Amino acid sequence: MNLDSALKLIRDIPDYPKPGILFKDITPLLANGLAFSAITASFSNEIKKSEIVAGIEARGFILASAMAIKAGSGFVPIRKAGKLPHAVFAESYSLEYGNATLEIHQDALSDSERVLLVDDVLATGGTILAALKLIQKAGGKISHLCVLLEIAALDGRARILSEFPDVQITALVQV
Ligand code: AMP
Question: What's the gap in Å between 14 CA and the centre of ligand 1?
Answer without folding.
Answer: 14
